[in-house]
Amino acid sequence: AVPHNSLTFDLPVSSKLPNLPASEVPSKAKVVWHKFSSQTDFERDMYFYGTFPEDFTWGVSSAAYQIEGGWDADGKGPSIWDNFTHVPGNIKNNDTGDIACDSYNKVEEDIYLLRALGVKNYRFSLSWPRIFPNGRNNSINSHGVDYYNRLIDGLVANNITPIITLYHWDLPQALQDIGGWESSALIDLFDSYADFCFRTFGDRVKFWITINEPQVIAWASYGSGELPPNVKDPGSAPYKVAHILLKAHARVYHTYDDKYRASQRGVIALCPNIDWAEPKTPSDPKDIEAADRYLQFLVGWFAHPVFKNGDYPEVMKWKVGNRSELQNLPSSRLPVFTAEERDYIRGTADVFFFNTYTSKIEVLTKVDSSWRLLNWIKEEYGNPPIYIIENGVGLATKSSIDDNTRIFYYKTYIDEALKAYKLDGVNLKGYNAWSFMDNFEWLNGYDPTFGLHQVDFDNPNRPRTPKRSAVYYAEIIRNNGIPLPKEDEFLYGEFPKNFWWSVATAAYQVRKPRRNLKVSVDTDGKGLSIWDKFSHTPLKISNDDTGDVACDSYHKIEEDVEMLKSLKVSHYRFSISWSRILPDGTTRYINEMGLNYYERDWLSLFPFCLSPQVTLYHWDLPQALQNVGGWENDTIVQRFKEYAELLFQRLGDKVKFWITLNEPYNAAYSPYVVGHNLIKAHAEAWHLYNETYRAKQGGLISITINSDWAEPRNPHNQEDVEAARRYLQVQRHPVPALPAAPGFGFMLFSVFCCSLPEFTESEKQRIKGTYDYFGLNHYTTVLAYNLNYPAGVMSDRSWLNSGSVWLKVTPFGFRKLLRWIKEEYNDPPIYVTENGVSERGAFNLNDTWRTHYHRSYINEALKAVVLDGVDLRGYTAWSLMDNFEWAVGFDERFGLYHVNFTDPNLPRRPKASARFYSQIINCNGFPDPATGSHPCLEPEPEGKRSLYVHFALCVVVVLVLALLAYKYGKLSKRSRKRKHMELHKL
Fold first, then answer.
1. Among 31, 93, 624, 757, CA closest to 380
2. Tens digit of each residue's pLDDT (9 = 90 or more) over 518-532
3. What are this entry's molecular-function GO terms (predicted)?
4. In the predicted model, is pLDDT for residue 354 greater than 50?
5. Three-state DSSP state, 225
6. Helix or strand or coil: residue 973?
7. What is the DSSP secondary structure assignment for residue 303, as one 8-state letter?
8. Phi, psi dihedral angles at 264 (to 5 degrees)
9. CA distances from 95 to 220, 226, 977 (A)
10. 626 phi-psi bin (left φ>0, alpha ψ -120 to 50, beta other)
11. Cis peptide preceding 790, ω within 30 of 0
């Protein structure tokens, strides 16, 4: 009986695939390389969600010699692998397959595990010498036949479809003794063995594979001689063996087609192994030709005769024939098929089975090549029904239950297969993972582990334990692919009406700080900062870039303001250069030119609707203070307080949002002393503002912290869960080339909750609660695991890359972090003060990558507000423009506006992301397209916005003057005179 979920094939008596013409080089499949060479990194690496068709078949694979054991049990004859492994030194660690996984004695246990996985099929191979001990049908071993009947019956009873490979390398030794696959006698002998299998098992088996990876047999067994029977004749033997293998396959196919197809209605094909070949330079025709030639020799060697015209690829015939001629041989080393043989071989496959693991000539950042490979098969062989029979990864470490690397492998390869099916129309019918369990991996013995199940080979009972990858793969099967998680679905809606939209820069990164490092004070009065000195130290900065000019925002205020107006942001976050105001870091000398730059030239040019968010310290400490110890010197707390007070006095009437310190732990090069001083400096500045300036200036002041979200690498492992928790409390941020420091989670803890014991009691009271809001810089997520302190971190290879090695596009972590802050710190008001993504390489104004990033991250922020009740009050994009990105110089670009650093005028140009961000701001979120066209999405007529702004300003001015006039009328004569002077001044 066929199980109800098995695939049934209503195939005609002759089910050959259509004949195709011979391939050229480069073949018509070269369109695949042309297609993907124009693909952007974003398109290539973007994770794709979706499911496969309902009849898609999921399975796992194994092979007889690798799992069965029982090498001489119950009358089984020896195979070439039995004899080969019994010779010391042939196999790593002198391992053998004598017992292997002992599946010969564990049929019920294996079926139980298969059922638990939820697979629809199980691909395994039959051991030829277990059925025919001497390789011939005059020596049938009933015990072997019974074993396979029990296995097949058990699978069918559990609704698992058997996929049987007739030959998976374990040739009976008796047949090797007569020449093995170099002897044409094996064509008849293989057919006799296959005929018996069809007759005996075919009533329950609907999938047959004749030969597994025939190229490996031909080359590794008869060319390089690595595998048994160890024939080392690379010039001729592989071609001769391949010729016989193809004839043997065709004979078996015709036997099934003629005698069994009508009643059994199954499918049959051979199964090559395919490594994808990527041209070194995809745009170079010669490289494309080389990659195509590689595939014609590897795949076309066996697939071209079967799926094309019954003959070898033309390039193979020409290449081998030409070499043979140069060697003065009487004929080509590549044998020739007769016309009759070509007709006999052509079309001897009902489907396209293949195994794939990796890529060759691969120059991409990822090797998840199945998307390209599947497209190539589609183009080259007429889009046949395709089944991936083996796909997996071996880990060269002791088998572990927690096999995270294998999960990443399946996550990416299966997703690439999904893309091929969904996006390109590849006729993909099934996927099988290699392997069902850890097993004997040929020459490598038991060291590399490919299994979804761990097998303890030190235990005579060979117990099996599901790994994390088994749980993951079972979930893929249950979902029939990779559907978008519910929590990742896009949310349409708006932020609160008073939500702040902002964009950020930092002084050293965009302004023109210095011209002359040979003097302590520059011509405009600015003092030397630690970054001025650091960036001028050879080899410290990528390409020896410096921030000497940066974006020259020092001289381009009007241009920068126009960019801000165009973005429609309500706020602009920038930092003050401490050394520009106080050249030596102290109030002994105040640089009025520097103060005027911020007070008159910069803040006065802000449009009425744009509010400043000012950071007091963004890493550029005056070098004069560093010369006396910097943040390690306790006196810096007072220096910082004096610096802050000067800014509160001079700028406080215009600034209503202050950030004391940006990412303090990145400034902490000597963590414990520096961390204390940073926190104390922040607290003193906060108290100063709170007690002296808040009442009349009415602003907010706090600290801003950078935090990645930390996800446990294994959410089911309590140690990893604890590691993620520790990382959030005590984390590092990987700023390249900055002195490393243990993270300063205690800074958060001290300010927002309870000071840690390192502070005195009075310090604790002074620090606790010194915040008006939670300032948050956030960029990415890490996977944390229990290694060292506070945690080891890694990333998921399926996460989208960026221009920074540390920054993976992980929007889901943003919402989780916001929710965590709410719960951990008693629901503080939160302002996101930085969020953005970098790019490298060739410049493109159409920065799809960044648009995707901001769309995804801002949407997660919306979910945090709407669905989680997070008190998020503002969002700031990093950064306004491409700028000096610290130790990586100008290589990494975060800007919404492009700055051409090769042009002395440093022109700014908006990228696509700038227009997109402006649209989000205009809509205050994401209007639902289902409700129809929203006015905020319509382009504004020329000058319309300017008219609205001026009208709004007029209304506000009239209201203010009316209010003043009303109050003025109620004042005494003396008060009216004083107020009149103030009003006149206003």
1. 31
2. 555 565 889 999 888
3. hydrolase activity, hydrolyzing O-glycosyl compounds
4. yes
5. coil
6. helix
7. H
8. -95, -25
9. 20, 16, 103
10. alpha
11. yes
Residue 420 · residue 371 · CB < 8 Å:
yes
Helix (H, G, I), strand (E, B) or coil at 428: strand
List, for residues 788-834, the tens digit of each pLDDT value: 767 788 999 999 999 999 999 999 999 999 999 999 999 999 999 99
Query: Identity (one letter) of the amino acid at 936?
Result: C
Measure the CA–CA gap between 907 and 918, rounded to whole angstroms.
Answer: 20
Identify the DSSP state of 387. E
Residues taking part in catalysis: 390, 834
- 418 has a pLDDT exceeding 50: yes
| Amino acid code (one letter) for 918 | S
Which element (helix H / strand E) includes 389? strand 386-390
First to last CA, the chain: 94
b (16+ CB within 10 A) / e for 460-485: eebebebbbbbebbbebbeeebbeee
For 700-799, strand residue ranges (E) read 700-706, 709-712, 774-777, 781-785, 792-794
Tokens of 91: 């196999």
- Residue 570 is given by DSSP the state S
C-alpha span between 384 and 369 (Å, rounded): 19
**Cα(124)–Cα(201) distance, integer angstroms:** 13
- The span from the CA of 986 to the CA of 983, in Å, is 5
Q: Are strands 464-466 and 453-455 parallel, antiparallel or unpaired?
A: antiparallel
Cβ atoms within 10 A of the Cβ of 301, count?
Answer: 23
Whether the CA torsion 568, 570, 573, 577 is positive or negative: it is: positive
Cα–Cα dist 635/631, whole Å = 9
Provide the token pair at 412: 């990416």
Residues 6+ apart with CB under 8 A from 724: 710, 711, 712, 784, 791
pLDDT mean over 304-311: 96
Residue 819 and residue 134: Cα distance in Å, rounded?
69
Greatest Cα pair distance, the chain, in angstroms, is: 127
Please provide the size of the chain in residues: 986
Residue 804 vs residues 42, 655, 967: alpha-carbon distances, Å: 14, 33, 57
Show Cβ contacts of residue 778 under 8 Å, excluding neighbours closer than 6 positions.
706, 707, 708, 709, 813, 814, 817, 832, 834, 835
Closest CA to 515 of 534, 539, 492, 532: 532
* Residue 359 identity: S
* pLDDT the model gives residue 842: 85
539-577 pLDDT tens trace = 555 564 555 557 888 888 889 999 999 999 999 999 999
What CA–CA distance (Å, rounded) separates 631 from 668?
Answer: 8
Instruction: Say yes or no to pLDDT of 697 above 60.
Output: yes
- H-type alpha helices, 68-211: 80-85, 107-117, 128-131, 142-157, 173-176, 185-201
Q: Which two tokens stand for residue 856?
A: 């995804």
For 308, 378, 974, the CA distances from 381, given in Å and listed in that order, are 7, 6, 98
% of the chain residues with pLDDT over 70: 85
At 979, which amino acid appears?
A: K
Q: Which of 916, 895, 919 is nearest to 907 (CA)?
A: 895
Minimum mean pLDDT range among 27-31, 499-503, 528-532: 27-31
Copy the structure tokens of residue 101.
């996984």
Nearest Cα neighbor of 17 from 385, 278, 482 is 385
